[in-house]
Structure prediction request, 226 residues.
Amino acid sequence: MAVSIGKAIILYFVIMISLRIMGKRQIGELQPTELVVTILISNIASLPIEDVNIPVLGAILPIATIVCLEVFVSYLSLRFRRVRELLEGDYRVIIQNGVIDQKELANLRFSLEDILEELRAQGIFDIRDVVFAAVETNGKISVYQKKSEQPVTASQMGIETGPDSLFTLVVSDGTVLEKGMRLAGVDQKWLKKTLEQENCSSVKEVFLLTVNQLEEYYLVKRGTQE
Prediction:
């Protein structure tokens, strides 16, 4: 039992390092090649845990090989479009000007219900409102809606909104996030002043603090339901 636990801990860190090397895409929306790599790594990692007679090195070496291969293939995909198309495919147009391409839908083995469900998820309930829709290589559907059916923006209505300013998280559950403070353009002096204004003796009393470049902030103390 102790051997299996030890192997599991070692392989856990090996897989985490492998995913970091391959990049963040492997954690999010998987391309076909990335899905294959993920399945292979999970299967290989399980072997020495299930069988105590298989050494950990027997899993680490194949995992390292697969990671190196994936990095190499990703490099080739970036350099050569033909390789990328061969391994990942290309997007497929399924709706144009409100008309569904039934042949393409059949080739992709997508049902009409699948398409309608995805459109509803994007707030579109009438196919005729769709100018263009395509299935991306990761299986997601991108949709461009008619301008007449799109939400009205402030610029279209001639409303002045002032400068754009992004709220950034600078304190999370009592911990100061230096990266967030740099993005917001604030410093420790501003933080100390803000805590004093909110009657907080320490940053540990703060559950949430966000601020934008205009130094407008939103603060929630620990234990409050705001």
Notes: The first strand starts at residue 92 and ends at 96. The chain has a mean pLDDT of 81. The radius of gyration is 25 Å.
